[in-house]
Design brief:
The structure is a homotrimer of 137-residue chains. Chain A is α/β, with parallel strands linked by helices and 137 residues long. Chain A is built from six helices and five strands, in the order E-H-E-H-H-H-E-H-E-H-E. Helices cover 44% and strands 17% of the residues of chain A. In chain A, helix 1 runs parallel beside helix 4. The radius of gyration of chain A is 15 Å and the shape is globular. In chain A, 49% of the residues are buried. Chains B and C meet through helix 1, helix 3 and strand 5 of B and helix 2, helix 5, helix 6 and strand 5 of C.
Chain lengths: 137, 137, 137
Amino acid sequence: MDETISIVLFSGTDDKLQSAAVLVGGAAALGKPVKILLQYWALEAFRADRIKANHGLAPEAGEAGRTAIDAAAKGGGAHWSDTMRMAKEIGEIDIQACSLSMDVLKLKQADLDSLVDGIEGVAAFLINAGDGQIVFI
Amino acid sequence: MDETISIVLFSGTDDKLQSAAVLVGGAAALGKPVKILLQYWALEAFRADRIKANHGLAPEAGEAGRTAIDAAAKGGGAHWSDTMRMAKEIGEIDIQACSLSMDVLKLKQADLDSLVDGIEGVAAFLINAGDGQIVFI
Amino acid sequence: MDETISIVLFSGTDDKLQSAAVLVGGAAALGKPVKILLQYWALEAFRADRIKANHGLAPEAGEAGRTAIDAAAKGGGAHWSDTMRMAKEIGEIDIQACSLSMDVLKLKQADLDSLVDGIEGVAAFLINAGDGQIVFI
């Protein structure tokens, strides 16, 4: 149980980010290190000025899904960014912004939430992933 | 070839569920155990009263894609739920509903199709996944 | 660092294909073999007559995202198909069309770009993946 989980986090909707956060929290609780590479719309979602904005849901959510998720949030469910923040406090969680996505979206690290530890290329991410698990979300 | 494949099944469109079912069927045929954790819209799709309903396709499918998939279904292609059912008969396939998604969507196990073996948290899923492959669909 | 990365490439939008291409390029640079199975909309995107057509973006891209990606492409960013082509020149990259998706979409290998090496079933793909990493994009 000491293998690293490496996550390429690409999607920027709140439901997938919540799913990723719960995986990260679970891994932290089990003492599994997690390395996250933020690309495209996930990277956008980690912008400091809008991390808690409404980032929408997957297209198949539908009206009933939207209502259920809004109700859960109002009922005290933690925001995905808070779940990730807690996971970083208890576990070995490293969050890197993909350098190529930073260029495409014209972002600087100062634009990003403090959850993001640095900027990294894909090759470095793959080297760190080693023979562990790679999950694309 | 005895490593478990652990699948976080998040997406609820029929094309992705079909893709997942074919992977599961292939793994079953090869004697590879599969553990599935149903989240969000995939969990919704496993509701007993609508598992064979139309769950739509990925947004990029387009009109031509929709037509092709409808034609394949009419031409005798198996529904993804039937492919999963067959896979469970020949292989070691375990399907769990994510407890957090059950809460968010206000579902009880009685609401779910009999394909679902139980309810599980993410930590238990990750423990069972061990150092095997984790796939997010 | 000699483990194979096996990618089920399902999605057909240019942003996810670009993300996949960058992963493949990074793996090639590191000498990691990559095996890709093209399904559904990714397979559609590899059609010879439209590989460089506009395949759209993930739904959450939004107007600002679209503008940023268009600007990056005009600014000299490589097309994902060119990145994959270069990766094939320097690394051990094998791209197979999923036989089932070929049937559903009524495609023949002659319809596909020369990047595609052949047609394969899911079971063969899983056998080749062995105990290495499996990534679903």
